[in-house]
């Protein structure tokens, strides 16, 4: 697997959940490796003058998104429950994912956090929820959370968010294939096709 698809995701993003559920299987079928890139949309939205999710700021867009994501999950057999709070703060989860950078169980952790948020309606900002996920993956929850709160990990996550911004990322999920940006879970196939060609 020579080619690599960069997958930039934010834990508050509904459509990133869909992409996280599908990307490994589709990439493996295309013989393409996935580089998992957690980042934070908050600072990017803030630069656009948004202090909340655009789905909350624009009610018609939000109403469409909730129905759309329900339809997509139903059609793909992905578990879905509308969360009672949206968007949830994914900062700590993003730090944990950053701390797990390159680890074998990173992808499994990411999917478990998304399922906790968008299938089980759990508060992913709570350390207890993340500890339970880490335990379920046979990862040392205390050591991993301690590492997630290390200054080096915080700096790396900030640097990743700055990198996303500098490369033109404005939403999640975003994919980079041969340095070309593809935005939205429905662009995953096109991004993979670009790498195959």
Automatic annotation (TrEMBL):
Record's keyword terms, sorted:
Isomerase
**Record bears the keyword Isomerase:** yes
Report any Pfam family annotated for this entry.
Answer: DSBA
Could you say which residues form the signal peptide?
Answer: none
As recorded in UniProt, coiled-coil segments are none
Catalysed reaction(s) here are: 2-hydroxychromene-2-carboxylate = (3E)-4-(2-hydroxyphenyl)-2-oxobut-3-enoate
Q: Which top EC class is named for this enzyme in its record?
A: isomerase
The UniProt entry, under PANTHER family, shows: GLUTATHIONE S-TRANSFERASE KAPPA, GLUTATHIONE S-TRANSFERASE KAPPA 1
Which family does the similarity line name? Belongs to the GST superfamily. NadH family.
**Name this protein carries in UniProt:** 2-hydroxychromene-2-carboxylate isomerase
Q: Which organism is it from?
A: Methylocystis hirsuta
- Provide the taxonomic classification: Bacteria, Pseudomonadati, Pseudomonadota, Alphaproteobacteria, Hyphomicrobiales
């Amino acid at each position: 697997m020579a080619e690599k698809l960069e997958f930039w995701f934010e834990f508050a993003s509904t459509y990133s959940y869909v992409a996280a559920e599908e990307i490994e299987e589709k990439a493996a079928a295309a013989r393409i490796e996935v580089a998992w890139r957690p980042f934070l949309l908050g600072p990017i939205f803030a630069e656009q003058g948004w202090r909340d999710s655009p789905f909350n700021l624009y009610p018609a867009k939000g109403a469409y998104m909730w129905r759309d994501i329900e339809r997509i999950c139903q059609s793909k057999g992905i578990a879905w429950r509308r969360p009672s709070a949206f968007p949830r703060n994914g900062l700590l989860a993003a730090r944990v994912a950053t701390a797990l950078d390159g680890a074998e169980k990173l992808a499994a952790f990411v999917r478990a956090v998304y399922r906790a948020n968008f299938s089980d309606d759990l508060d992913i900002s709570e350390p207890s929820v993340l500890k339970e996920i880490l335990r379920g993956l046979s990862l040392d929850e205390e050591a991993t959370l301690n590492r997630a709160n290390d200054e080096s990990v915080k700096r790396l996550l900030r640097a990743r968010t700055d990198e996303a911004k500098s490369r033109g990322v404005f939403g999640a999920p975003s994919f980079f294939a041969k340095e070309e940006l593809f935005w939205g879970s429905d662009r995953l196939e096109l991004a993979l096709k670009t790498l195959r060609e």
